[in-house]
Amino acid sequence: MPLDGKLPDIDTSVAHPARRYNYWLGGKDNFAADRESGDAIAAAFPGMVIAARENRKFLRRAVRFLAADAGLRQFLDVGTGIPTTPNLHEVAQDVDPSARVVYVDNDPIVLAHANALLTGTDQGVTTYVDADVRDPARILAEARETLDFDRPIGLTLLAIMHFVPDADGAHTHVAELVDALPPGSYLALTHATGDFIPPEVVAEMAKRDARSKSPVVDRDRAAFARFFDGLELVEPGIVTVARWREDTEDGDRPADETVSLYGAVARKP
Ligand SMILES: C[S@@+](CC[C@H](N)C(=O)[O-])C[C@H]1O[C@@H](n2cnc3c(N)ncnc32)[C@H](O)[C@@H]1O
Fold first, then answer.
1. Where does the record place the region Disordered (predicted)?
2. What is the CATH number of the domain that holds 96?
3. Domain membership flag for residue 37
């Protein structure tokens, strides 16, 4: 059901990342400003809708890897987004119903939909924290109420850090979250990049995104890799989200220039 006009505390005057992403994924929880911005960016970069969907497929494969192969039973997901089936807890609890998940986002529309994220199994736990990734101390304090920081945790930061510029301390905030995790924990992170797109297309996308609430900051491979400093990348290392363990995904894999999002998973030694 379209939400237009039903949630007065939500700012509908500019595009918001959570709602525009929901539009690209084919959801209904978005407003005119989100759709206009989403269409304008997709007109400049036709791979956008495929990229958004591939990012979501990465989430499924990465969380399944973390739960089934790495044996994790606890997850801290920052920048959760509007509920989209399957949600992270559904993937993790499909492997083990006792998995515990803390979701974090700073957008009021995600908070408004949080109940749909709190539908886990009887054996597991899911909780929601309304917080900003630029406030890691608060996120960690709240997460400690649900997760045991003496046991490995999967920290997932999927398609969020490109909304945080260097001037806001993007790498420092991620490092602070990773520092708090015990050895054997993992970081999974995906991020927009201009590395595969002609510079004039990158510039046009930035122009069309400039008025949105959080304009995207593309990062190159070296800047992306810095999020994983001190961690051990698992195979296949840093690739576009569509290429990460692509053999476990059905269907044709889109080209890197279509996807334009880096993805990687790494273990904390
Ligand atoms: C593109 S969506 C990605 C959703 C989901 N992680 C996924 O990959 O499918 C980005 C999410 O990050 C959230 N976000 C952006 N900046 C944030 C910040 N500074 N703190 C917390 N959440 C933020 C947005 O509200 C949005 O829900």
1. 249-269
2. 3.40.50.150
3. yes
Q: Which of 105, 166, 173 to mutate to test the pocket of ligand 1 (most atoms within 8 A of CB)?
A: 105
Provide the domain limits for residue 141: 17-267
Asked if residue 12 has its Cβ within 6 Å of ligand 1, the reply is no
Of 213, 206, 211, nearest to 11 (Cα)? 213
Q: Domain for residue 8, yes or no?
A: no
What is the tally of structural domains in the chain? 1
Picking from 21, 43, 47, 45, the residue whose alpha carbon sits closest to that of residue 34 is 21
- Report the nearest-CA residue for atom 8 of ligand 1: 158
Question: Can you tell me the mean pLDDT for 181-199?
Answer: 98
In-domain check, residue 204: yes
Full DSSP string of 198-265: -HHHHHHHHHHHTTSSS------HHHHHGGGTTSEEPTT-SEETTTTTGGGS-SPPPPHHHH-EEEEE
Banded pLDDT at 189 (limits 50, 70, 90): very high
The one-letter code for the residue type at 90 is E
State residue 7's pLDDT score: 56
Query: What share of the chain in percent tops pLDDT 90?
Result: 91
Query: Does residue 3 lie within any of the structural domains?
Result: no
